[in-house]
C-alpha cells in the first residue's frame, strides 16, 4: 500500500512537466523542428528554469505569510547595477560578481523589511513605495542610460549551462535546508499556519519578517546576476515596469503549492519552474510573438487556478460517475 502511494505521488509530481514536454514536442514536430535542436536550446531552457525558480522561491517566501512584495523585480535590477559597477571599478575577479550582487540585493531586502516593520503599514503599500525608490535609483546611478557590459567578456561567459546548473542546484539545496532544517524555517512555517498563536507563544515575528525580506532579496540578486551577464545590459526601470519580472513566477508558485501536498514545497516550485522553462523554450522554438506568449501564460494560469478552485467538485463528479457505473454493472 505504501509503495502504491509513493508511486502515485511520484506520478503526480512528474505528470505536469512530462505532459507539457509531450505537448510541446508534438507542436514542434508539426512545424518540422525539434524542441531541443542544439546546445543553445538547452542553455535557454536551463536559464529560464533557473530564473523562474529563484523568482518563484522569493515570491513565495513573503506571499505565504500574507505579504505581497512588489519590490522584488526592482531589487534584481538595482543590485545588478550596483554589484556590477563595484566589481568592475574595483577590479574584482569575475566569479565574485554573483556574490557581490547577492550581498547588495540582500541589503536591499533588509531595507525593505525594516521599512515594513517600522512604518507598520500594509505590506503592499510599503513594497510599492520601496519599489519606486529602487526604480528611481536605477535611473540616478546610470544617468538614465542603464549599464552596458558588452565589452566585459570575462563577465559575459559566466552564465554557461554548467554554471547555471550549479547555481540552480546549490540554490535549491540552500533554500531547502533553510526552510526545513533551521530555526528560521520552523518559525516561518509556524507563522504561516497560525500567526496569532505563534506570536502568543513568543515567536519573533518581526525578526522573521526582516529575515524573510532579506532572503527574498538575495534570491532576486541571483536573478539580477543572470539577467545582467546574459544580456550584457541592464536598462533602467521606471513607473512600475519592474513588476513584470514577477509575473512569470505565479504559475510555478501555484504549481509548487499543489505539488507540495505530495512532496516538499520548494521542490514543487522547482518542478513548476521547470515546466515554465519548457514553455518558454517552446515559445522560442515556435517563434510566437510576445503578446501571444503573455496570452498563453495567462490562459495557463487561469486554467490551473480554475482546476485548484474546483478540485473538490471534480472529485465528487468522478466519484459519482464511478458509483453509477458500478451500480449499472
TrEMBL record:
UniProt keyword terms in alphabetical order: Cell membrane, Membrane, Transmembrane, Transmembrane helix
Family matches, as InterPro entries: ABC_transp_permease
Highest taxon of source: Bacteria
GO MF entries: transmembrane transporter activity
Coiled-coil zones: none
PANTHER family found in the cross-reference section: ABC TRANSPORTER PERMEASE PROTEIN YPHD-RELATED-RELATED, RIBOSE IMPORT PERMEASE PROTEIN RBSC
Name of the protein described by the UniProt record: Sugar ABC transporter permease
Organism: Natronobacillus azotifigens
Amino acid at each position: 500500500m505504501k509503495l502504491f502511494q509513493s508511486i502515485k505521488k511520484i506520478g503526480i509530481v512528474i505528470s505536469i512537466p512530462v505532459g507539457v514536454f509531450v505537448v510541446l514536442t508534438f507542436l514542434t514536430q508539426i512545424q518540422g523542428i525539434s524542441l531541443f535542436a542544439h546546445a543553445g536550446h538547452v542553455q535557454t531552457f536551463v536559464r529560464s528554469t533557473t530564473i523562474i525558480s529563484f523568482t518563484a522561491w522569493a515570491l513565495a517566501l513573503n506571499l505565504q505569510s500574507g505579504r505581497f512584495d512588489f519590490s522584488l523585480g526592482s531589487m534584481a535590477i538595482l543590485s545588478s547595477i550596483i554589484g556590477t559597477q563595484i566589481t568592475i571599478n574595483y577590479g574584482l575577479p569575475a566569479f565574485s560578481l554573483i556574490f557581490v550582487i547577492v550581498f547588495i540585493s540582500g541589503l536591499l531586502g533588509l531595507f525593505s523589511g525594516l521599512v515594513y516593520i517600522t512604518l507598520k503599514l500594509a505590506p503592499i503599500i510599503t513594497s510599492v513605495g520601496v519599489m519606486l525608490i529602487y526604480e528611481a535609483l536605477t535611473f540616478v546611478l546610470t544617468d538614465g542610460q542603464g549599464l552596458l557590459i558588452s565589452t566585459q567578456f570575462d563577465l559575459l561567459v559566466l552564465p554557461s549551462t554548467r554554471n547555471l546548473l550549479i547555481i540552480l542546484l546549490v540554490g535549491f539545496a540552500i533554500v531547502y535546508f533553510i526552510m526545513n532544517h533551521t530555526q528560521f524555517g520552523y518559525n516561518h512555517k509556524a507563522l504561516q499556519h497560525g500567526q496569532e498563536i505563534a506570536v502568543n507563544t513568543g515567536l519573533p515575528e518581526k525578526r522573521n519578517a526582516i529575515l524573510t525580506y532579506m532572503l527574498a532579496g538575495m534570491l532576486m540578486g541571483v536573478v539580477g546576476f543572470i539577467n545582467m551577464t546574459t544580456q550584457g545590459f541592464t536598462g533602467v526601470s521606471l513607473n512600475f515596469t519592474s513588476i513584470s519580472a514577477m509575473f512569470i513566477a505565479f504559475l510555478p508558485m501555484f504549481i509548487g503549492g499543489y505539488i507540495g501536498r505530495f512532496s516538499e514545497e520548494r521542490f514543487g516550485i522547482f518542478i513548476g519552474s521547470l515546466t515554465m522553462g519548457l514553455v518558454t523554450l517552446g515559445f522560442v522554438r515556435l517563434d510566437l510573438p510576445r503578446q501571444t506568449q503573455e496570452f498563453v501564460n495567462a490562459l495557463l494560469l487561469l486554467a490551473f487556478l480554475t482546476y485548484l478552485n474546483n478540485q473538490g467538485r471534480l472529485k465528487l463528479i468522478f466519484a459519482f460517475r464511478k458509483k453509477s457505473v458500478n451500480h449499472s454493472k
